[in-house]
Amino acid sequence: MSEWVEPVTDSALASAAVDRFRSEFGAEPAGVWAAPGRVNLIGEHVDYAQGLSLPIALPHSTVVAVGRRSDGILRCRSGLGAWTGRVDEITPGNPTGWAAYLAGVVWAQRREGLLDSGFGGGDVVVESSVPIGAGLSSSAALECALALALADLTGAPTDDAGRAALARSCVRAENEIALAPTGGMDQAVSLRAEAGHALLVDSRDGAVAPVRFDLAGEGLALLVIDTRAPHQLVDGQYAQRRVSVEEAAATLGASLREVDDVSALADPVLRRRARHVVSEIGRVREVLSLMDSGRHREIGPLLTASHVSLRDDYEVSCPELDCAVDAALAAGAYGARMTGGGFGGSAIALIDAGAAEQVAAEVLGAARSRGLTEPRFLTLNACAGPARRVPSHAERGPAAGFA
Ligand code: ADP
Ligand code: MG
């Protein structure tokens, strides 16, 4: 039997978070906010090359219950542990681990003037249905839920321009405090997605545009395969790819967004890296044009071509991802590819609605027969919406009991 990771409703996550908040802190939170994880349909490893990507928000999300404080202390609680520290002492290296993603948001928002320097601190409890470290952006979901919470609590703007500023602060949190060198795609989709749409993210200027993608209406679904292979973006490979992209752009005298011929790069490895980025941006454009004319099944081969490019030119795949993609295709998927940073994590397959069980069973069988870790699965029948305040808690009573 395949194992499925079901989404949990905002209100169920919120009520777990509020219960824990009460028992940890003996008070009511000021509110609860939720932010989604994501899969990237296509446009992988191009967000730090000023490229185009097309992520989709998941129905799986992370919630934070947040209370305000006035003594300069930040207290964080999650399934991974507890951390308490002084807001003034947050710095690269303090805290480390999971709390860095939350403390980093406070630090970055203060740096960016989104929170005033007299910000009095807060209490935060995290609950989530996003698989952690599976390439589905649990990190951005965590950052973005807190970023929106702080903005709402302090009256900072949360219209689209406000959310763009929050997304930038979350990228800084992840890069400068959590020390994970990711681009901006994950935070953009978590804060700025539109339900029923993929989000075109243009990393040249941070602009986004919703792209209608009615999966169920097209009779389609996305099967997400969490390979459960270890995935560690914080280690050197991701950073090395970024350096290669910068080196290629410097040699060619233009960003890879502007280039369509990489043959001037003498070094064969650098040339393959650049060829991935340039060809991937081209595939995003082709997908957009197919979607625009309602030919959604025909994007399948472009997804598969993206995987081949990531596997062979960019060299960020792994046996578990390759096995999942090959097995999904053999099971009749229109297309399949790794999604996210790679070196483990998840793959997606574009399939007929209703085929999820069958394709998953074949992917599981392939992993078993090769002695690989057994994957688990998520299905996506609709593109979810962006970070939001969870109303259920507010409806239960006023935000009482905090300083
Ligand atoms: P991904 O974003 O693909 O899930 P990352 O390695 O970028 O993987 O981020 C995962 C890290 O984010 C975790 O190791 C943890 O530090 C932090 N994190 C994410 N979700 C949670 C959560 N619900 N509770 C605590 N920490 C979390
Ligand atoms: Mg992440």
TrEMBL record:
<keyword id="KW-0067">ATP-binding</keyword>
<keyword id="KW-0299">Galactose metabolism</keyword>
<feature type="domain" description="GHMP kinase N-terminal">
    <location>
        <begin position="113"/>
        <end position="191"/>
    </location>
</feature>
<dbReference type="InterPro" id="IPR036554">
    <property type="entry name" value="GHMP_kinase_C_sf"/>
</dbReference>
<keyword id="KW-0808">Transferase</keyword>
<dbReference type="Pfam" id="PF08544">
    <property type="entry name" value="GHMP_kinases_C"/>
</dbReference>
<dbReference type="InterPro" id="IPR020568">
    <property type="entry name" value="Ribosomal_Su5_D2-typ_SF"/>
</dbReference>
<keyword id="KW-0418">Kinase</keyword>
<dbReference type="Pfam" id="PF00288">
    <property type="entry name" value="GHMP_kinases_N"/>
</dbReference>
<keyword id="KW-0119">Carbohydrate metabolism</keyword>
<feature type="domain" description="Galactokinase N-terminal">
    <location>
        <begin position="20"/>
        <end position="68"/>
    </location>
</feature>
<protein>
    <recommendedName>
        <fullName>Galactokinase</fullName>
        <ecNumber>2.7.1.6</ecNumber>
    </recommendedName>
</protein>
<dbReference type="InterPro" id="IPR006204">
    <property type="entry name" value="GHMP_kinase_N_dom"/>
</dbReference>
<dbReference type="InterPro" id="IPR006203">
    <property type="entry name" value="GHMP_knse_ATP-bd_CS"/>
</dbReference>
<feature type="domain" description="GHMP kinase C-terminal">
    <location>
        <begin position="289"/>
        <end position="363"/>
    </location>
</feature>
<dbReference type="InterPro" id="IPR019741">
    <property type="entry name" value="Galactokinase_CS"/>
</dbReference>
<comment type="similarity">
    <text>Belongs to the GHMP kinase family. GalK subfamily.</text>
</comment>
<dbReference type="InterPro" id="IPR014721">
    <property type="entry name" value="Ribsml_uS5_D2-typ_fold_subgr"/>
</dbReference>
<dbReference type="GO" id="GO:0004335">
    <property type="term" value="F:galactokinase activity"/>
</dbReference>
<dbReference type="InterPro" id="IPR019539">
    <property type="entry name" value="GalKase_N"/>
</dbReference>
<dbReference type="Pfam" id="PF10509">
    <property type="entry name" value="GalKase_gal_bdg"/>
</dbReference>
<dbReference type="InterPro" id="IPR006206">
    <property type="entry name" value="Mevalonate/galactokinase"/>
</dbReference>
<keyword id="KW-0547">Nucleotide-binding</keyword>
<dbReference type="InterPro" id="IPR013750">
    <property type="entry name" value="GHMP_kinase_C_dom"/>
</dbReference>
<dbReference type="InterPro" id="IPR000705">
    <property type="entry name" value="Galactokinase"/>
</dbReference>
